[in-house]
Amino acid sequence: MTRGLFSPSRWRRPASPANWSGRACRAPSRPRATGTWRPRSTTPSSGRSATTSASAPPQVGFLGEEEAAGTGWEPGAGLRWVLDPVDGTVNFVHGLPLCAVSLGLVRGDVPVLGIIELPFLGSRYAAAEGWGATVDGRPIKASGAVALSAALVSVGDFAVGDGAPEANRLRLAITGLLAERAQRVRMFGSAAIDLAWVAEGRTDACLMMNNRPWDTAAGVAIAREAGALVVDRDGTPHTMRSTATVCAAPGVLTEVLQIVREARSGTANGDMTDHGDADLAGDAGR
């Protein structure tokens, strides 16, 4: 990877969080080694998403949430920008500050760079492969938690719409087991925030029972560079083709995965079926 291009020192914050409009999250332009990538301003109601400018290198692909909604991840060997201009849309619409602009760079199926902006909280998380992770330029590291009983864990949203009761059985079982064994359970409503806060050590783990690249690419890159472990529901390394996103401090991952296994096997709620990755609005589909 070109260190000059992906060095975190190239990224600068806007002058003030006040520059971010309450009506639209505007992703600021980012300098590049050659050319310039400038996302368009986006609002949840506009129906328009960010696109690459004509000067963007043609060998780098692009995937935005609106273009890809309802479709699966198509693996590719090259580099691809993956953007969610407003992660945590329901929070945004209701005036809650827990929303983010999430931009990741994926090589093949693995994120190698991530930037997450929390415009209403005034924070920017960034990471690039081999460079570590930062928030506002300060290095961050996943927590040193070693017991789930002392861990703060966040979970993804519940599914809504057709088929939601079946899809939520696994989510409800996991949440119930976490309530019994973790220190506390939280639901923030933004996949980007879930992952960024594990990376920073604010929380100790997060579990989302699906995986949409525009929601998770940036956060996965940041969490890994901060020392967190990110895996699929079966414990295999997480990629953009995974069916779930489980991120945890190394000291609690084993206990977190044990909860997922118990929930999937039906030991939590008797006769329960794992319905897998139902394509419903929930978890990362916020």
Automatic annotation (TrEMBL):
Keyword Metal-binding assigned: yes
Keyword Magnesium assigned: yes
Top-rank taxon, per record: Bacteria
Residues covered by region (Disordered): 1-60, 265-286
Entry EC no(s): 3.1.3.25
Known catalytic reactions: a myo-inositol phosphate + H2O = myo-inositol + phosphate
Low complexity bias (residue ranges): 34-58
Pfam family, one: Inositol_P
InterPro entries on file: Inositol_monoP_metal-BS, Inositol_monophosphatase-like, Inositol_monophosphatase_CS
Keywords: Hydrolase, Magnesium, Metal-binding
Protein name per its UniProtKB record: inositol-phosphate phosphatase
Source species: Sphaerisporangium rhizosphaerae
